[in-house]
Write a structure and sequence with these properties.
DNA polymerase, domain 1, mainly alpha, two-stranded antiparallel ribbon, about 325 residues, hpI Integrase, Chain A, three-stranded antiparallel beta sheet
């Protein structure tokens, strides 16, 4: 019983340390889940009684028996290292003997322009605008959902992506075709925000310590989400009633439905819009460094994967089938 109480306190301490470092709620949920799984794997032994060998055994089990991807195994490792470094204050040091999960070499799924057009035709409302931004500006789904009103710069026709993957900021293009549509969308959102304020709400979650530094910022128009949730909810950390950003699963479901309606058989998702954005930019003759900046890649080699997609296109290699069969297709 005492051990169970200690583990409950350990999880609470883990949540506290994550929150004080301003990690996202998604990171907190993932880290807590991995630490719990680590404890269960070792038959509810308290982590302070375990060693590097036990950590290695857990991570190897994920790769060998559960066939997780390399990124999933790395996330589990990061969660456990965080636990030992910042909660238990028992740094693990080198962890040897881990059976590493293999990272498969896969080319990204890319839609043709016609396929993108057909998918967009089967979307409407918020999901349509979000999909247009993901394809037109190369944003990740979560980056899109977290956009604030002041991130849209109509004058310079850019979108400011803040705290993207890896905590990096970047500036991307704002498609001209969305200017009027976004202005109308914002006018609609402002009416909703004013009603929230009149009803005693209107606050949103602010990153890091901005809420303490600028007490009135949470209710200001500029900090409101570009894609707000339909309902006001309770912040899991502060307990305050706020209007959070839209649940990304609703966009994912809408896009999946649109893919089926467009008869897209490729294993495509919201992230496919980003892959298609990069590939189509390169097809249009854009410099790969420009594409790298738009996508926010640190390493150019990550962006170069899209050149492989182009090289493997139908026009890159002429099949010998026609010559072999003596068939000449019309031009």
């Amino acid at each position: 019983m005492n051990n169970a109480k200690e583990i409950v306190l350990l999880i609470k301490a883990l949540q506290f340390e994550i929150a004080t470092r301003h990690y996202s709620i998604r990171t907190e949920q993932a880290y807590v889940a991995w630490v719990k799984r680590f404890i269960v794997f070792h038959h509810y032994k308290h982590p302070k009684t375990l060693s590097n060998i036990d950590v290695s055994a857990f991570l190897s089990d994920l790769a060998v028996n559960h066939k997780v991807t390399a990124s999933t195994q790395n996330q589990a490792l990061n969660a456990i290292v965080f636990l030992y470094n910042h909660v238990l204050l028992q740094p693990l040091g080198m962890i040897n003997g881990i059976s590493r999960a293999k990272t498969p070499s896969k080319l990204p799924v890319v839609l043709s322009r016609m396929e993108v057009r057909e998918v967009l035709k089967n979307l409407s409302g918020i999901s349509w605008i979000a999909a247009c931004i993901m394809y037109g500006s190369g944003l990740r789904l979560l980056e899109c959902a977290r956009l604030r009103v002041h991130d849209i710069d109509f004058h310079h026709r850019v979108i400011n992506v803040r705290n993207g993957k890896g905590g990096k900021d970047r500036i991307v293009t704002l498609p001209d075709e969305l200017l009027i549509i976004l202005q109308r969308h914002l006018n609609h959102l402002k009416n909703i925000h004013e009603k929230d304020l009149a009803n005693g709400f209107g606050n949103v979650h602010l990153p890091n310590a901005l809420a303490r530094k600028y007490p009135n910022a949470a209710s200001s128009w500029g900090w409101q989400y570009l894609f707000p949730a339909a309902r006001i909810s309770t912040d899991p950390r502060s307990g305050e009633k706020q209007r959070h950003h839209i649940d990304i699963s609703s966009i994912q479901k809408a896009v999946k439905k649109a893919m089926r309606a467009a008869n897209i058989v490729k294993p495509a998702s919201c992230h496919t819009f980003r892959h298609s954005f990069a590939t189509h930019l390169l097809e249009n003759g854009a410099d790969i460094r420009t594409v790298q900046e738009q996508l926010g890649h640190t390493d150019l080699r990550t962006t170069q994967i899209y050149t492989h997609v182009l090289k493997r296109g139908g026009r890159a290699v002429k099949s010998p089938l026609g010559d072999t069969l003596g068939i000449k297709l019309p031009d």
